[in-house]
Amino acid sequence: MTSSYDSLGIRPIINAHATLTMFGGSLMPAEVRKAMEEAAGSFVDLHQLQKSVGERLAELTHNEAAYVSCGAASGLLLATAACISRHTPEAYEDFSKLNGVPNEIIVQKMHRNSYDYAVQEAGAKMVEVGSMEGTRIEDLERAFSPSTVAIFWFQGAMNEPSELPLKDVIHAAGKYKVPVIVDAAAQLPPVSNFWNFTQQGADLAIFSGGKDLAGPQASGLILGSKDLIERIRGYGAPYHGVGRPMKVGKEEMMGLLAAVERYINLDHESLLQTYESRVEYWISGLNGKKGILAQRDYPNEAGQPVPRTRVELPVGMQKEQVIDALMQGDPQVAVAPSENGNALLLNPMTVRDGEPEIVLQRILEVLG
Ligand SMILES: *Cc1c(COP(=O)(O)O)cnc(C)c1O
What we know:
- By secondary structure, the protein is of the alpha/beta class.
- It folds into two domains: about 30-265, Type I PLP-dependent aspartate aminotransferase-like (Major domain) (Aspartate Aminotransferase, domain 2, 3-Layer(aba) Sandwich); about 265-365, Aspartate Aminotransferase, domain 1, CATH 3.90.1150.180.
- About 40% of the residues lie in helices and about 15% in strands.
- It has twelve helices and twelve strands.
- The protein has helices at about 30-40, 45-60, 70-85, 115-120, 135-145, 165-175, 195-200, 225-235, 250-265, 270-285, 320-330, 355-365; strands at about 15, 65-70, 105-110, 125-130, 150-155, 180-185, 205-210, 220-225, 295, 310, 330-335, 345.
- The chain has a seven-stranded mixed beta sheet with strand order 2-8-7-6-5-3-4, with helices on both faces. Strands 1-11-12-10-9 form a five-stranded mixed beta sheet, with helices on both faces.
- β5, α6 and β6 form a beta-alpha-beta unit.
- The radius of gyration is 22 Å and the shape is globular.
- It binds pyridoxal-5'-phosphate (PLP).
- Pyridoxal-5'-phosphate (PLP) binds next to α3.
């Protein structure tokens, strides 16, 4: 029997939720698969490939330098290692040398999230500033110490108007010569984010290769400062040390390059039109049926400038129940629960042509 999802009894999912790693992130378009397939066919010098791919990626994204990591989370770890080693070049020669070296990473308390564990895995200590209600410039100023090695900025669901804005963070960091690292894992679209954060003065911006970029699942993109990226290169596989367990293959490097080339040349205007039509289709098919209130919601959960459909459920129908029923049906359909209230959120970015109809039909069936 040939290996396939089918042979394992694994059923494919129609994904109207998001580019979630637990569902496989995103689907690679033909260009990316072809690049990976070709890369898989010959041996190469991996150091040289990472360097050459990095140069091309830097050019394409209008950055000084670029590096392919094995995911955005691994990018966070490697970026942290680079910031710690700016102060203590020998910090990663041996694990024991990490003891007591300057390792403080400043982060707004409201930006703390489950991905910042990757920062701590490099041996950093998180120094929180501000509160869940907000962050003031004085909070940040007070946190700088001789042990500060970087400020991390997380972009996504954690952003609130009461946070200290990125430009203020960059300005303050400049005074103390501390790098600012932006976790922009899910911040594509817009495509201009490839250069927006670094042109504003962030030292590095880190993206997931396996979300909307639709590159290999196990790829990430680090863009920005040449100095930091050279340090990162020294820690990444095939070198031994802190980055070795997060190796990136020739297939991921070439696949990510193809994904970035494709993404830059995509007609993002027309894609947005497609998303708007899917959202509109769901609204017209659901609103007013079976006690449903369906509306356009904007921006989406990651703060991307893309609409989604919010489906308020009728009284007596709990969102968890509906989501479970959709996942147990045939085909399996994944949708997101609303953060507040009793609603489903439908994402037009991760469904393929022909699937919005199935999502709509399954929701109506589940609601009886
Ligand atoms: C998805 C995400 C990550 C992790 O990206 P991977 O490429 O899956 O490692 C990190 N930070 C944020 C904010 C994310 O949304």
